[in-house]
Design brief:
This protein is mainly α. The protein folds into three domains: 2-133, no CATH class; 143-647, no CATH class; 648-699. 68% of the residues lie in helices and 3% in strands. The chain has 22 helices and six strands. The protein has helices at residues 36-51, 71-78, 91-104, 110-134, 140-150, 152-189, 196-205, 222-231, 258-288, 298-305, 314-342, 346-386, 395-403, 405-425, 432-463, 485-521, 537-554, 561-583, 593-620, 640-646, 650-660, 662-737; strands at residues 2-4, 7-11, 18-22, 26-28, 534-535, 585-586. It has a two-stranded antiparallel ribbon. It has a two-stranded antiparallel sheet with strand order 2-3. It starts with a strand and ends with a helix.
């Protein structure tokens, strides 16, 4: 048996002390030299020796390959700042490293000893604070319970709900601090408005644009109050809920610019959402980057390392077992699909592409039809709301139906068209994973584009861009029938948000509960549509992303909508948790938490991008309402920014002008190119590191295969030897008896 010892001499930067660590000797048997990784490690060790001669002295270089540690790992042992808990070594080795550090600390100065003790104290304090804050985490116990019962895939949906709660509460805090509280202060203090003369001069130029006839106050029937609550009219319209109630101006003794605060709060919140979502998406990609299709140990990892040890229920354990089997079946199906694809003739491929083209053309025609239906429903609803003196026996039902007609059409489309997509995908002959991803992409596109079509139809009504009512926009710059068109859009988003929430409650207690009751109390076999429903993660995520997109679109016109959405998310959390525990069963197709989180964040990012388009277009181009709102003095909401800039000192104005100049943009572009180049270099370096680590894992797998093969060969040889030995002994006994 041979032994190898490695002594590393590492000189510190100040030259006062040095490290001389002698790692534990590792025994090397003859079989070790036959491992596939032995030659590779030997070549790597020789290259390390040639590069690090100034840092290390090797007593026996020929035996360096026998060491289990590389020089990068030795640096971890040498570094006294590295925590023992993070070192990838055994407990015995950690004890020896700690003793070595204790002995070496005797040669340190008092200042270095004090600095190390302070670093340890700060590290312990940080760990204690982190542990204390973790107890204040929202729904921590519920999330751990869901993870333990149903795995990390379903838990990621509820974690996503918690993220949306914080996202909406941050919006409410911004609006409340910078917009709502100052406006309440102005209303209660009854400050004198100093720009009334300016408002009077503007109103004389177009008096019809300043008429804002609200619903008459006084005695109203009970059903009208209910209708006002659900439609945002009446007493809701004259509340802090909608844009039209924020009548800001210049007040005596108040230097706070409320219109500018309103605009900057919205811009800052959207930037916060963008950065927050991008950060979570990048973190998800970091985890998913390790899962590549060309990784040669993919199947073995699924068989031996895919089990979720957080599951403690027998039913979920069986379900997880079936999930692993299903994933292996999907892999086999993909291999069969690749084989079938390779065997297709040119004629068969052309026919398949023609079928896919026809089906996608049919889908586009159906989506176009749904867009037209949404446009006509929005137009009919808006025309009905302009009419007055609606009297009749069923006036309440008619008004409620017409108020919510666009929301009803959107909900019906979101329910029926995904079922059509599932039928169509069966004839397109895609791989199993591609089918799921394509269905999710189509459903996401359907939901968000339907919402975009609703916003576009409202845009046409306000700007008279349909070509039929251009005369209505000549006086005010927008449709004169919409005296406060921002509030009207806010009411539409409020109704759509409320109907979406009511639809979620209705599906839970009017569809899932009866199906669960039938499944538990009916003895004969039920049709699939009446069986206990599955808790499908992507569909539930699309529902809450659709609701969040509605909030983003309507936040500028209804500033308190994020608060309602935060309350909705909290109610949805407990409602879906109750539904998961008692009404539904987890879907047989389980989702990995990392990939599902990426899908959630990308869908949310797409919704944010879609919501920013109308909001940015309104801020930059559309003329604000002259009868209400904080921007009634300006040609556009962005018009307040140049006015504020002109009031700044000359130095500040010169600085802003310099920022807008071409020279500054050239410098900025150069800096961004340098930063981008650095990021690309880091990405390539990380990719090479990941490739090297995967190569090490592959070598380790080959070593294990070789050892198993040797062990089986040796055991077979021993069995044959024992058999021959026993046969010879029995022969000798027979001969002795004879």
């Amino acid at each position: 048996m041979e032994q190898g010892t490695v002594d590393i001499l590492d000189t510190e930067s100040d030259g006062n002390s040095s490290w001389n660590i002698s790692l534990q000797s590792y025994s090397e048997t003859s079989i070790f030299q036959q491992l596939p990784s032995h030659k590779s490690v030997k070549r790597r060790s020789k290259s390390v020796i040639s590069k690090d001669k100034h840092r290390s002295s090797v007593r026996n270089p020929t035996e360096l390959s026998t060491s289990e540690y590389t020089y990068n790992e030795v640096d971890l042992f040498v570094d006294g700042k590295q925590s023992l808990r993070e070192l990838p070594i055994s407990m015995a080795e950690k004890k020896r490293v700690r003793e070595k550090r204790t002995c070496d600390s005797e040669f340190l100065s008092k200042w270095e000893i004090w600095k190390q003790s302070q670093q340890k104290s700060l590290r312990r304090l940080q760990e204690e604070v982190t542990h204390a804050i973790s107890w204040l985490e929202l729904w921590k116990r519920s999330l751990n319970e869901i993870e333990g019962r149903y795995g990390t895939g379903i838990q990621s949906y509820f974690t996503f709900l918690r993220f949306l709660v914080f996202l909406n509460l941050s919006a409410f805090l911004l609006v409340g601090v910078f917009v709502l509280l100052p406006s309440i202060y102005i209303t209660n203090m009854k400050l004198i408005q100093t720009d009334t003369e300016r408002l009077k001069n503007i109103s004389l130029s177009a008096p019809d644009c300043f008429k804002y006839d609200l619903y008459p106050k006084g005695l109203v029937s009970f059903y009208e109050k209910i209708l006002d609550l659900f439609s945002g009219t009446g007493f809701m319209e004259v509340s802090w809920m909608f844009y039209g109630y924020y009548k800001f101006g210049v007040y005596e003794g108040l230097n706070y610019n409320l219109p500018l605060a309103y605009l900057m709060t919205m811009i800052f919140y959207f930037l916060l959402c963008l950065c927050w979502i991008v950060k979570r998406t990048v973190n998800g990609f970091k985890q998913e980057s390790m899962h590549e299709s060309n990784y040669n140990t993919r199947q073995s990892a699924k068989i031996f390392a895919l089990w979720d040890f957080c599951i403690k229920e027998t039913f979920m354990a069986d379900l997880k077992h079936h999930g692993i089997v299903n994933e292996l079946k999907i892999d086999l199906a993909e291999e069969a699909y690749k084989k079938r694809k390779a065997e297709r003739t040119t004629r068969e491929r052309a026919f398949l592409y023609f079928i896919r083209f026809l089906l996608n053309l049919f889908i586009m025609i159906v989506l176009t039809g749904t867009f037209y239906v949404i446009y006509q429903a929005t137009k009919s609803s808006q025309n009905f709301q302009r009419k007055e003196n609606r009297i009749g026996r069923f006036a309440f039902i008619t008004e409620f139906f017409m108020e919510y007609l666009p929301s009803i059409i959107l909900t019906v489309n979101n329910i029926l068209l995904p079922c059509l997509f599932w039928i169509i995908i069966q004839y397109e002959e895609y791989p199993p994973n591609t089918e799921i991803n394509l269905i999710l992409i189509r459903c996401t596109f359907l939901r968000l584009t339907n919402l975009g079509m609703l916003v576009f139809s409202l845009w046409q009504q306000v700007t008279c861009s349909d070509g039929k009512s251009k005369k209505d926009c000549e006086t005010c710059g927008y449709n004169i029938h919409y005296q406060c068109w921002e509030t009207k859009i806010g009411q539409e988003m409020y109704k759509l948000f409320l109907f979406d929430f009511l639809a979620a409650i209705g599906v839970t207690y009017c569809v899932e509960l009866p199906r669960k009751f039938l499944a538990d109390h009916v003895t004969f076999e039920l049709p699939k549509i009446l069986q206990k429903p599955h808790f499908i993660i992507p569909e539930n995520v699309l529902n809450i992303v659709n609701g969040q997109t509605i909030v983003w679109v309507g936040m500028f016109y209804s500033p308190l909508l994020p608060l309602l959405n935060a309350i909705k998310c909290i109610i949805t959390f407990y409602m879906k948790k109750h539904s998961l525990y008692y009404y539904c069963r987890p879907a047989r197709r389980l989702f990995r938490a990392s990939s599902s989180k990426i899908f959630f964040q990308l869908t949310l990012l797409f919704g944010l991008t879609l919501a920013l388009v109308p909001v940015v277009g309104h801020i930059l181009t559309l003329h604000p309402s002259k009868a209400c709102g904080p921007f009634r003095y300006y040609e556009s909401a962005w018009g307040i920014v140049p006015e504020v800039v002109t009031r700044l000192p000359q130095q500040a104005q010169k600085f802003l002008i310099h920022i807008k100049s071409e020279a500054f943009l050239l410098i900025l572009i150069t800096v961004l190119c340098i930063v981008l180049t650095t990021c690309v270099a880091l990405v390539r370096a990380n990719r090479r590191t990941i490739t090297r680590l995967k190569w090490h894992l592959a070598l380790a797998g080959k070593d294990k295969q070789y050892l198993v093969k040797k062990l089986s060969t040796r055991s077979q040889h021993q069995r044959n030897f024992h058999f021959q030995d026993s046969f010879s002994n029995s022969t000798q006994e027979i001969n002795s008896w004879t």
